[in-house]
Amino acid sequence: MTEAKFPKNFLWGGAVAAHQLEGAWQAGGKGVSVADVMTAGANKIPREITAGVIPGKNYPNHDGIDFYHHYKEDVKLFAEMGFKCFRTSIAWTRIFPQGDESEANEAGLQFYDDLFDECLKYNIEPVVTLAHFEMPYHLVEEYGGFANRKVIDFFVRFATTCFKRYKNKVKYWMTFNEIDNQSRFNNDFLMCTNSGLLLNNDSNNEAAMYQAAHYELVASALAVKEGKKINSDFMIGTMINFTPIYPATSKPADVLMAQRADQRRNWFSDVQCWGYYPANVEAYIERNDFRPDITEEDRIVLKEGTVDYIGFSYYQSMVVSADKVAPDDLSDPEDVIVSNPYVEKSDWDWEIDPVGLRYSLNALTDRYHLPLFIVENGLGAVDKVENDGSIHDPYRIAYLRAHLEEVRKAVTLDGVDLMGYTPWGCIDLVSAGTGQMSKRYGFIYVNKDDEGNGDLARSRKDSFYWYQKVIKTDGADL
Ligand code: P53
């Protein structure tokens, strides 16, 4: 029997994104990002994307949890939990406030030097996403985001600047966060956060998505190529929101639908790992003329800029049925989702399926033969602070424990090559999807509510001590 432990060099840690916690949205010359023009939504109420920053509206990312000024205290708490790594992103607008400048902004670069130094002081390895829903808003307004080929160069300049500056401090990189989320092309929020596309009633969202995604994939591949020249030890990964897709029944049409939905959704990493589009996607794009601009040179770049590992978020699985749409007519997988009667749901209706994580680890290993890194996983929940200041979150511990049990099986029984595990929102932060503070993921509580009230004080939840023990025992004691 294999020892039920994770490897010794396993990267235990936690994950965040700049725009969701840093705040200080104008400090040190920072520019306006797409996250800065998104108002607070609520459970099932989408965030509004405004035309620039409009006075009087509530933009929760402007202040975040003010990590910009609290990072020393926060990194110290991560170290206390025993973190081996910390995943964050570099806010593009701190480095290139408008996005199209030729010179980088020194104050922004310095902030990340200080942050990475602080991590390294505790032997915490920074794991860095370059673009995590943070495109400069100017690139959206002026250029149409990734609808425009020129934006490739702006991204590559940003990536190269970061690679050069932090080449001795950061080894693990990812290019675009959840690049595959835009497969949900009728979702305004995701199209804007992923690619800087602003949709209206006249746009052909699907065509716009395939073209923009192509430019983004080329930008990602170019960044990988440049990164390797700067430091050949870099590990540069994709980052996808992997969602395994199950058929509603064993009816052949449902099974075909599950495969088709997978082909519509999970192809981004095919391009990034293999260096070319899978045949089914080529055929689909071709037949619909969804990607008019792809050059031979692009195809070479895609081949040359493949990734070293697969970073992925795992929150839930998805069940589809062919009852309403025939597999051959499928364009948006969102249209064919049915609820899974065998799993529980979170308060935000996210399906909770720990076994799906083991399934995902195996599916990705079988498909790509590359190392994997779970860079997000977790439960968004409402926490209650007791009179004595303690926070009891057994639901979060149960969620993470159940997922880690499945991860451990994948590693010790199935031979999956897993680099690490960084649960999402290791410190409470602004929810990406809803803009709420009350949808909390953290081991560390932050005293701030949805209206922005609170003194931002940090405190340890019960899960803080649980995760500390998990790391200390290399995952033997879950
Ligand atoms: P929140 C869905 C919608 C928006 C972002 O999400 C998402 C997803 C998950 O597929 O992705 C990630 O905050 C994202 C993080 C985000 C986290 O999921 O809506 O990479 O930025 O905070 C959790 O609960």
TrEMBL record:
Keyword Nucleus attributed: no
One protein family per Pfam: Glyco_hydro_1
GO cellular component: cytosol
UniProt xrefs under InterPro entries: GH, GH_1_N_CS, Glyco_hydro_1, Glyco_hydro_1_AS
Superkingdom of the organism of origin: Bacteria
GO MF annotation terms: 6-phospho-beta-glucosidase activity
Enzyme class, spelled out: hydrolase
Active site: E376
One of the GO biological process terms: carbohydrate catabolic process
UniProt keyword annotation of Transferase present: no
Enzyme Commission (EC) number: 3.2.1.86
PROSITE patterns cross-referenced by the UniProt entry: GLYCOSYL_HYDROL_F1_1, GLYCOSYL_HYDROL_F1_2
Keywords: Glycosidase, Hydrolase
NCBIfam families with a match to the protein in the record: PRK09589.1 (NF007154), PRK15014.1 (NF011589)
Family classification: Belongs to the glycosyl hydrolase 1 family.
Protein name (Swiss-Prot/TrEMBL): 6-phospho-beta-glucosidase
Organism: Ligilactobacillus ubinensis
